[in-house]
Amino acid sequence: MDFEEGNQKLQEIVKKLEKGDVSLEESTKLYEQGVAIAKECAKVLADCKGKVTILKEELSQITDGEEND
Fold first, then answer.
1. Could you say which of 4, 34, 58, 61 is the most buried, measured as most Cβ atoms within 10 Å of its Cβ?
2. How far apart are CA 21 and CA 33, in angstroms?
3. Residue-wise pLDDT tens for the chain (69 aa)?
4. Residue 30 and residue 17 in contact, taking contact as beta carbons nearer than 8 Å
5. The domain containing residue 30 runs over which residues?
6. What does the DSSP assignment read for 35-48?
7. Are the beta carbons of 59 and 42 closer than 8 angstroms?
8. What pTM does this model have?
9. Number of other residues whose CB lies within 10 A of the CB of residue 68
10. What sign has the CA pseudo-torsion 59, 61, 62, 64?
11. Closest Cα partner for 15 from 4, 29, 32, 30?
12. What is the rounded distance in angstroms from the CA atom of residue 64 to the CA atom of residue 41?
């Protein structure tokens, strides 16, 4: 699942829970699903942050090298 899909699913779960017309059992299941999706989204964000950090370091090395020429 990509971040956008996860985010959409989380929004749908929140809407269902906020409506308040689901049983306690269904609310618990929805909450569990939401937590699992949130974990996946957090992992995706962490992976992206790591990639951006690496790219920034690579860019910094390139631009620092150009300044020394």
1. 34
2. 17
3. 899 999 999 999 999 999 999 999 999 999 999 999 999 999 999 999 999 999 999 999 988 876 655
4. yes
5. 3-67
6. HHHHHHHHHHHHHH
7. no
8. 0.78
9. 5
10. positive
11. 30
12. 34
